[in-house]
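ok, trying the design again with the full structure, not the truncated one.
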């Protein structure tokens, strides 16, 4: 099996009042379909991660000021990280579409820490303006669910989808119940 990263060129703007789970799945499917058109005959994976806090859904911040605002919302709170996943062979499907949800609690982040983190640039291109796989893990006090989901690719769900598509995944135990994983019916 050979892997290739192909930027999907998809508008990631969120519609008003769409649930984060539905938005993450829709964006993942749009990305996968956009790539499938350019890579016929390939099994394509699309993913999109969003952060839900206080009734708001946060994608990637557009600039430093928005990143600061996002981190302010997350500071001292518990939020949900939702990653949608879509796996399929062609633009028309069939597609396996679902999402994983992880709850993350952050301690209060002091203003000087926020500015230092913003200076690092780690927030750029990251849902919710943080990267747990880099140094933002120092803000996290509790994580309930899949850490790989917070990084942006819920490996547990991906392994399940690959196996269902007929690809053996050696060295990975069968479903282990790490985090909440939901599957949508075929979206093709």
């Amino acid at each position: 099996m050979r892997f290739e990263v192909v930027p999907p060129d998809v508008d990631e703007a969120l519609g008003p009042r769409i649930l984060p789970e539905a938005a993450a799945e829709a964006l993942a499917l749009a990305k996968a379909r956009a790539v499938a058109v350019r890579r016929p005959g390939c099994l394509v994976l699309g993913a999109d991660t969003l952060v839900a806090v206080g009734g708001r859904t946060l994608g990637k911040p557009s600039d430093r000021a928005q990143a600061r605002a996002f981190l302010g919302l997350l500071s001292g709170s518990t939020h949900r990280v939702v990653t949608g996943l879509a796996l399929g062979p062609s633009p028309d499907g069939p597609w396996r579409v679902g999402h994983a949800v992880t709850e993350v609690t952050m301690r209060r982040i002091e203003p000087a820490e926020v500015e230092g983190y913003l200076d690092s640039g780690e927030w750029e291109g990251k849902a919710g303006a943080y990267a747990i796989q880099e140094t933002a893990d120092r803000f996290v006090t509790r994580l309930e669910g899949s850490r790989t989901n917070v990084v942006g690719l819920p490996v547990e769900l991906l392994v399940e989808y690959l196996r269902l598509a007929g690809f053996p995944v050696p060295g990975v135990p069968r479903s282990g119940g790490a985090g909440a994983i939901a599957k949508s019916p075929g979206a093709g």
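Keeping the full-length input from now on. The beta strands are 44-53, 56-58, 78-88, 96-106, 140-144, 180-184.
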